[in-house]
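Cont'd.
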Amino acid sequence: MQKVIEVKNLWKVYGKRRARFTALKRLSLDIYKGESVAIVGKSGSGKSTLMHLLALLDKPTKGTIKIEGLDASKLRARKINRLRNRSFGFVFQQFFMNSNETVYENVLLPLKIAHTRRGNRKRLALEALKSAGLKDRAKDKAGELSGGHKQRVCIARAIVNNPQFIFADEPTGNLDSVTGEKIIQLLFGLNQRNGTTLVIVTHDEDLAARCDRQIHLRDGEIINITKKKGVKK
Amino acid sequence: MTVGIFKTANRRLWRNKARSFLTIMAIFVGSMTVMLIFAINNGVSRFIDEQTRNLGGEEYIMITPGSNASALTSVLTGTNNLTEYSSRDNFFTAAQVQEIKNLPGIDAKNFYAPKTLQNTSAYLTSNQTKKKFNFTYTTLLSEDYDIAMGYGELPRPDTDAYEIVLQSGMAEVLGFASDEAALGEPLKIVYQNPYSRRYRTFVARIVGVTSANIATINQPIISTALETAIYNFYTEYAPDSQKGQIYYIKTRVDLSKTTMQELQQTLAEKGFYSTTVNDMMGEMRGFFEIVVKLLMVLGWITLITSAIGVVNTLLISVEERTREIGLNKALGMSSLKIFANFSAEAISLGFWGVTFGIIVAMIAGNFINDFAHQAGGFLEMFPTFELCQFAFNDIVVVGLIVMAIAFLAGTIPAARAARKNPIDALRYE
């Protein structure tokens, strides 16, 4: 199996002196291509911080992160932006959408940033909306949708650029169980069909149990890594 | 792509209609003020230039043997009619004329040393009045005189006819209903020969009336044919020594060869007295320039105040859109692009403000001009004085400067937006 993310001796410290807080300690981890990984732990255990570092949204205090063999600390801002724009997809618990724009415009955002050509934009956006089951909501205002549909918009936005990675922070956190299940199916469907690597931060044990591996964090350290039953490695 | 940025920027501004509108209003008021001041500056300096041309242009100098030049007058600078006494003869000798003509910088092709009459007894009258008026005249020495005409034309230089141009206002004194009504009418000019004591009446046709001006030749202008006739009649019995006397010289100066100052100094050393058009117009121009400069300062202060409005509006906008900025950055938008987006909003605010400002200033300017020239208006006396004149260059300059100010004001909030860390921005509530 090909290693796509390699993390070595990662530290993340916030604040200085008395306000100093160590969010992650001595953390090392490999993630393989096409794998689904759940990062679990109590709140304050550092799981969101870890995901932000893996997704290159933040910089570690110490340690290295390699994405597809490239050391992130040595990449230029331009290259990192490009990586996030073309290879990563993000799903956030609080959705983070432009609520006064339409569903279609929200989904289009990564393509606009990427300067994708107009013709391609439309095709890709419609495909993504179709996969997320939002085909007939394209012209609705994003802010007027239900929670489940909002999360679908975020997933459509995350997959519109056909990313190799999807980083999801509590994707089912704000949803009822039926809606949550649909979102989970959507994510794993992508993982299965396109070989997209999934990194999911979650409290939800059901969701975590369906991932290939679960990384258990406590106080910024990995305490255990468990594998999905029936997965041979 | 650039067009796209501005489209998006304007859509964002439209989202916050009230706030954008108020900021645009502030820029609008500032731009309008500055534009009007530019226009007034233009109007005033064009008017002063026109006045200068009335007196023959800036390159002209008037030289007299030793006493004050008095043929050129200006209302503002004042004509006291007292000329300095000189023990020297009050006319040039042929040698002196030649000496002046040979000075460096004197343009010999535009050198006028007219034979003039002195101590004449003459009067002017018309069929419309019984009154008689003292008559002195001037002729056009040069085509550089660009005299603003109210009605009719200047005397044709090659005509044999006796033609006369009156200064504005003279016609009514002479009994005509108005300046316009006097056009084409005859005037009687009566001279007495100093030797034979006989009178001769010259009948001149009024071919034009000058428009009212601040600075002007305060005398009727006559055709050269009429001047020659008067001269011949007046000097008919005069001894040769009294003929062809030259009391003043008016000449163009080639300013590439000398400065006016140098020339005036040289003339003074030789005992001649000289006056330039700038000597007369300088004070007036200086006065207007100071007034316009003060107005300019006020205009720019207004604009700078509105720039603070731009900073404020965009700072609020940056705070409001912290999450949106964070999301855009997370999805790979560069800091430079975010800076550009906010700058585009700032420039758009400037653009709308200055566009409306210029349009309204032009409407207001036309209104002011009409108002000033209507019956009883404050510029009624000066029909050629268009107070507000909008030059294309000024419009472009004001437009660009206002947008540049808006852009500079926008850099503070735009830089703040660009610096935001995507994670902090996404966490921001």
